[in-house]
Amino acid sequence: MDANDEEARKIFDDYNCKGVPHLLFVDDKGNEVDRIIGYLPPSEYLARIQDIRNNKYTLDDFLAQYEKGDADAEIIAGIAMKYEDRGDSENAKEFYLILIKDYPDPTSEHYQRGTYFLASDAFKNGVSMALNAYIASFPESPFIEDAFYTMAYHYADKEMREDELKVYAQMLSHFPDNTGILNSYAWRMAELEINLEDALIKVKRAVELSADNPNGQANIIDTEAEVLWKLKRFDAAIEAIERAIVIDGKNQYFKDQKEKFIQSKKEASQPV
Amino acid sequence: MNLHQSKYYLLSILLFIGCQSSKYNWNSGNFEEAKSTAGSKLILLDFYTET
Questions:
Q1: What is the pTM of this model?
Q2: Residue whose C-alpha is closest to residue A167's, from A151, A144, A179
Q3: Is the Cα torsion angle A30, A34, A39, A43 positive or negative in sign?
Q4: Taking CB atoms and an 8 Å cutoff, what residues of chain A touch B13?
């Protein structure tokens, strides 16, 4: 498809897509058949495409089984997740509630996903303690990090700075060595231009912790450089971004960042 | 760089998946044209980031 960004963006929004990579399968009427969100290893990816071609494990397939009375936890969770992927919160909620009621096993991932979805839904609809209650109730849940991010982004959107900062403090306390969270915190502080010294400490820690993942580390070094730039430490910012460029020399964004820092240094050195 | 909420360039590529064969055909038109020629085949839209 020779689509320009504007057309692609409209289709992306029309189908309630969130995040990339995002593969959408539709029929000739434009009806969604299925979607694949995020990266998959090649063998798994091929298997999913073959299943979709055969209308297997799609929403229609799950609903047909449910209506025949063949429903189990897998099928009910499958239906709920398909609706959730489509941005259809009401139907997702209906099936997650069925799942929780009929298969109340707090140790199962489906149950934890369902309760997380319901808590998020309640939070977005004004029940401010819903996600904190979820975190307290399911401390071992794989959705704890998601719960924190949901709160942080919500408060950011609403410009509720104090609440947003409290969530970041909670996140960092809960996950002190999580490179993604350390990096997100530092980048956000750079955006807000607050707590920059603390952000620098946190992002340097993330750089250390990501030594075994050079590509990921380059992106975190970019955050370090951005924080240094906000602190007006231009030489240190240039030195940092050069480290990122050594790791990923083809990254135009890093090169643009370096130019930005050099320009700021020049402007700062000019007499007023 | 914010890894969790990074900005992305949205591009879209589309291909048809034939139900009777494994041949994939890239479509060079827009979405409406693809739907009008898809028949019983599925349309795949690929949204990805350049960064």
A1: 0.82
A2: A151
A3: negative
A4: 1
Domain that holds residue B36: 11-48
User: Is A52–B13 a contact, with Cβ atoms under 8 angstroms apart?
Assistant: no
Environment class of A35 (CB within 10 Å of its CB; exposed 0-12, middle 13-18, buried 19+): buried
Q: Answer yes or no: is B27 within a domain.
A: yes
Which chain B residues are within 8 Å of A5, Cβ to Cβ? 9-11
For chain A, the structural domain boundaries read: 176-272
Work out the minimum CA distance from A110 to partner chain B, whole angstroms: 23
User: Is the reported ipTM for this assembly greater than 0.85?
Assistant: no
Number of domains in chain B: 1
d(CA A61, CA A55): 6
Would you say domain A176-272 falls under CATH 1.25.40.10? yes
- Residue A36 contacts B where some CB pair is shorter than 8 Å: no
B33, closest residue in chain A (CA to CA) = A1
Tell me the per-residue pLDDT of B9-34, one tens digit each, with 9 for 90 and over: 344 444 545 444 455 667 667 788 88
Separation CA A62–CA A76 (nearest Å):
8
